[in-house]
Amino acid sequence: MPLLTAEKLSVLRGDRALLRDFDLQLQPGELLHLRGANGVGKTSLLETLAGLRHAGGGQVRYEREDARPHWLGHRNGLNLQLSAIENLQFWCGINAAPMSAIGPALDRVELPARARRRSCRMLSAGQKRRTALARLLLQRRALWLLDEPLDGLDVAGLARFADLVGEHLQDGGAVLMTSHQPLPAPLAARELAL
Ligand SMILES: Nc1ncnc2c1ncn2[C@@H]1O[C@H](COP(=O)(O)OP(=O)(O)OP(=O)(O)O)[C@@H](O)[C@H]1O
Hints:
Elements: E1 4-13, E2 16-26, E3 31-35, H1 42-49, E4 55-62, E5 70-72, H2 84-95, H3 102-108, H4 113-116, H5 125-134, E6 143-146, H6 155-170, E7 174-178, E8 190-193
The structure holds adenosine-5'-triphosphate.
């Protein structure tokens, strides 16, 4: 059974339809790499699939109860006044996720200890991205919708990202992500060009 189905979806931006009658299925264990030129509508599509933007028509279905997606936008969704740990504590608080998951998640994304308690405005782009990626590990959600998750990551960061995604797919999760860059090895993705 697919984790995500979109049928005859219209993606709007203002009063303009960027996509019409768009169909998509995402199966457990599948990584889908959404590609396309700047401005073609990748972010708008992802936001529509995540329920952050009204569709102009058609429907989006999450087929399983635990398929409520993890969303990672390219702005990271961090409060820059707060530290990495405080941001994750806030996220755990509003999502009923265990605070005990925060340390291990930051270990997995290899955010240095000295960076964890600094306000996020003091972090580099890659450190902020790693903090945002750590959210994916705080609560099990089968579907990950990731907009430009590779931006700002160095070579080690790309390798950690590949580890996280690879494990998630093996556990039966699915990932839909945009990227202008090739995906890090050994991730094998189905490609969809808009
Ligand atoms: N606030 C806005 N109001 C109306 N149209 C917008 C707005 N923001 C963006 N757009 C238009 O929506 C279209 C799709 O933008 P979107 O960000 O989804 O593209 P994208 O494929 O993700 O681009 P990129 O590769 O540059 O990230 C663009 O052509 C853009 O001009």
